[in-house]
Structure formats: C-alpha cells, structure tokens
Amino acid sequence: MKRIVLLVSGLLLSAFSLTAQTPQFVSTEPANRNVVIEEFTGVNCGFCPDGHRIVREYQEANPGRVFAINIHQGVYAALYTTQWGDALAAQAGVSSYPKGTVNRHVFSGSATGLDRGSFASCGNQIKAMPSFVNIAAQATIDATSRLLTVNVEAYYTGDAETADNYINVALLQDSVIGPQSGGSNFNPAQVTADGQYIHMHMLRHLLTGQWGDQVTVEGSSVIPQGTLIQRTYTYTLPGEISNEMLKLSHLNIVVFVTRDHQEIYTGASCEPVVSNIPQLGAMSMGVTAENVYGCSDEIIPYISVMNMGETPITAMEIEYSSSLSAAQTFNWTGNLAYEQVEQIQLPNVLANVGSATEVSAKILTINSNPITDELKTASITKKAAAEGNGDKLKIIIKTDQYASEAAWKLYGPDGSVIKRKSYTGNASVKDTVIVDLTETGCYVYEVTDAYGDGGTKHQVYDGSGLRLVNGTASSYGTIAQYDMKILSLVGLEEAEGVILQTLVYPNPAKDRVNLEISMLQATKANISVVDMLGREVIKLGDVSLASGNNLVEINTSAFSNGAYFVKIMSNDGITSKKISINR
Predict the structure, then answer these.
(1) 505: which residues sit within 8 A by CB, 6+ positions away?
(2) Which residue from 265, 329, 288, 376 is spatially nearest to 30, judged by alpha carbons?
(3) Are strands 3-4 and 228-236 parallel, antiparallel or unpaired?
C-alpha cells in the first residue's frame, strides 16, 4: 500500500501522524460514485424552491449516496452569497435559475448546468458509474475557540485517470431561517408557521479554496491503486458569513474528489462533533420594535435571545424600557435548547408619536442565575395617524400582474373588520371601493401581498377628498398598515348643508385633479378654481351633471405650488373643495 502525504501552503495545515499507514475511517472496498449536486439558487427566485424540493426528495430516496450544496449566487441572491459562487456558476454556464450541476459532469453539449427536472435522472447515471476512489471525513468544532478541524481520507481502489486530483472541503449550514420567494407554492415542507423559509445545504465556505487541494504522485502518470491520502484542514469559524450567524450545531461538511477543477468523482459528508460547550450561557442578539395600530401611543418591543450553553434555558428575567417608559422586568418561561434563537415579545411601552423612540432590553438572569448581558437598543418612529373627515372612505387599489396575491381590510374603531376584499387571476387589477362610515374614531387600513414583494399600489381618501394613505408598490413586503383618525362624519367643506357630495383626488396633486361629484338628481353646475386670494384661475363654465356619480377632470399643469379651492355652484347650493398643488 502506497502512502502519499502532500503539504500545500495555505490549505493543508497538518497531516495525520507519518506512522499511520492504514486507513482510519475510509472504505477500501470498490464502490460506485456518489452524487454531488451543486444547486444555484437565490431568495428572490420564485421557482428555486421547486429545485430545493426535487433535491431533498432525491436525497431522501438515496440516503448516504446524494449530497447537496446550495450556492446563493446571481441576480436573485440578495442574501447568503459567498465569494465562491460566481466562479462556480461561470464554470457551469449558468444564466438562469434554478440550475445545478450533477458531479460537474457534462451530460450533453459543453456545459454542466442542468435544469432541475434533470437532477434525478442524471444523478442515477452517476450512481451507476464505478469509482476508483473513496473519500470520507471526520470533523470536530471547539465551541470555545470556534476552531473547525476536518480530517479527510481518500483511498484509491483503482488507478486514477490522471496524475493529479483535487480534494475539496465545503462547509455547509442547515436550517437557516429567512425569506424565500415561492416557498409556499413549490416547497411548503420547508416553510415555517410564520411564513419564513428553512434554507438547507447552504454553502458558507470552501476550506480548500475555489478549486480544491491538489493531490499528485511524483514520478507517476496516474495516482495508482492502493494510494491513501490523509489530510487535515482547519478553519476558525467567524461569528457570521454574509450577515448570517454560523450556528455550530447546524454545520456540516461535504468532501469530494475532482479531476482538474471539473469532474467530481465521488463525495461524502459528515457532521462535526462540537466540544467545549459551556454548561450555561445566553446572549441577547438584538432588540426590535413594531407599531401598535389603532391610533395608540404604544409600541411592542421584542428581544432575540440565543442559548449559548448545553443546559436548556427554561426561565429568564429580562429588563426592558423605552424613552418614555421606565425600566421594568419581564419573566419569561419556556424551553430554549443549545443555539436555538427565540424572539420574545415584551409588554407594550410608551412611544413618542411622530418622532423617534429608543427601546432597550437585556437579560438579567437565566434559570435563576445572574448573567452579564450587553444592553441592546433600537430606535423606532411611530407615525401619527392621518386625520380626515367625512362619512366615507375611498380606497383605490392597483395590483401588479398577480392580482390573486393582493388583499386588503379596513378595521373600524372597535377593532372589527368592516370591509375586506381580495382579488383573483394573474392579471393587473385596478379597483375603487367606497366605504360608508357610521362613526368617528380610529380606522386601520391593512393591505397584504401573499408573495411578499409588495406588488400593490394603494391610496385612501377621506370624504373631503383628502388623501390619507399613499402606498407605493415597493413600500412594503407582505403587509402594510395605516392609522386613520376620522374627526367628523361631515366633510370640512360640506359642513354648511350643501346638497352635493364630492371627492377630490389626487390631493396633493401635480398636473391633474379628478373631481367626483355625487348628485341627488340631474342638474347643471358652474365649476371654477380660485386661489387663496379668491382670484379665479380656471373656469370650466356650466357642466351637465347626471344623477349619481360624475367625474370631472381639471388640468392643473399651469398652476403654481400652493393651495386652491374648487367651487361648484348649482341651484341647490355651493360646495368648495380645498386642493394642494405640490410638484
């Protein structure tokens, strides 16, 4: 049996003892190739979860034979990217997503990139091929120093095709909870109860560099049968990669052997054994806050806590406060395992309405044991409720090309839903709904997008035509909420008993104003616009108005910025509506 040891600067830090002449854990029996699927993906790729599902099901059907590496790369990868992805995608010829390679093998044409529908069939071809090399790994992590040590053995049961191969060691992370487009539609098994996505096999680092650690046999045209390679690689794990925390208990290793930088002969995986974990420990990860809707002066603080010790945390005392609320203590009970993170909702605190409020929290004790935790703070600005008047609200919705993802609700002063609507189809919808109001008070408007990309433009006007809500399609993700305080059921300009019901929108306006006039009966009305000094700036003259709703468009492109009044005079009275021009 031939013993080969190569020291490669920067990659190989040490080898097994030079006296070790026999394999310690790699098989010496001839075997077929194992499958390594490198899947190119991204959180904004709506069809990528279908690729994840296909790979997961293929792994479940072939335990110990199929290993997946998910590479977040390209235009859809807003999160979780690594420095290795672009070069791997370029080698595979990837230009659309989801795509993947199966053992970097060329099955047809010249590129290795495959559509997701080919993963299983191509993998089956690889599994049927004999392999002249076996590979295996064992790994440990010291929790105190965060040192990862990976021992790799490769044993050649036959002569290699070439004189040099490459050992590759990939560090992966499982159970990363975060966003993902299309998860509910294509891979619901990996969607959490609150709509987040469970990312698996995520590439975090390549311990052996972009293309691996070279293995050669000096003076030989091939790596001969009976050759044993034993190597050790180390890596000090950072706290996070690409803004995502590295949880030691969620890491695993995939190792594989390649010819040159292309063909993967076979692969294997192992889970590191974590040692030197403290018995008891915890740390707060950060503090956030969200608004309490319903025109209140309160906000909801949250603290994220991670268990850093082997002992489950079942009780915590947490101190919390805000700029307006003195420090108080919250007693939490539950069961938090090692490296598990929980976002804990704390009791409401007072906030400055219309300006920034600072929220703070820290852990005082865990399982009745005092700990030293750094105080975490966050700032939130609670927006004041938009104030309006009139006995109706006008809601205008324009969806993106997927109307079925959009819905909205209007909550009344008692918190109940007084109006709701959802849409159907895969085309854009524009909708206007008038909601009659029967009481003053606080109303909450809520718009949702099931896909999570905030694809609905939305506006709400009060009974006087004043715009209370102006939401763009990109102003939210899954949900947006707004407080609206209706002060009077009579419009500001209709308080003198005129018989016309009118709405003016948009307001503020730029080059155009729509005047919607509701008539009890058909008549003619004289319509004009005057400035704040009462000077007439535009005159439409007599306009015939039918019974019911009438829409009149006014060109305001020549108006200067400022306030104006639209005057509507008929035999039944005079109505004036205030408009603002703001370009």
Answers:
(1) 394, 396, 459, 461, 465, 467, 513, 514, 516
(2) 265
(3) parallel
Could you give the C-alpha distances from 153 to 28, 161, 220, 232, 480, in angstroms and in order?
Answer: 11, 19, 20, 9, 54
Note whether 54 and 120 are within 8 A (CB).
yes
Phi, psi of 103 (to 5 degrees): 55, 25
The answer to whether 280 and 311 are in contact (CB under 8 A) is: yes
Please tell me the chain's helix, strand, coil percentages from 3-state DSSP, rounded to the nearest 5: 10, 50, 40
Higher pLDDT pick, 456 / 235: 235
Cβ neighbours of residue 79 under 8 Å, at least 6 residues apart? Answer: 43, 72, 178, 179, 242, 243, 244
Among 578, 461, 558, CA closest to 511: 558
Q: What is the pLDDT of residues 524-578, one digit of tens each?
A: 888 989 887 677 889 888 888 888 788 999 999 999 988 888 888 776 666 778 8
124: enclosing H helix or E strand:
helix 119-127
Helix (H, G, I), strand (E, B) or coil at 130: strand
> Is residue 269 within 8 Å of residue 254, measured between CB atoms?
yes
Sign of CA dihedral 99, 104, 105, 108: positive
Q: Please classify residue 462 by burial: count the beta carbons closer than 10 Å to its beta carbon, then call 0-12 exposed, 13-18 middle and 19+ buried.
A: buried
Query: For residue 322, which phi and psi values (nearest 5 degrees)?
Result: -140, 175
What is the chain's alpha carbon radius of gyration, rounded to the nearest angstrom? 33
Strand, coil or helix: what is 559? Answer: coil
Mean pLDDT in residue range 164-188: 95
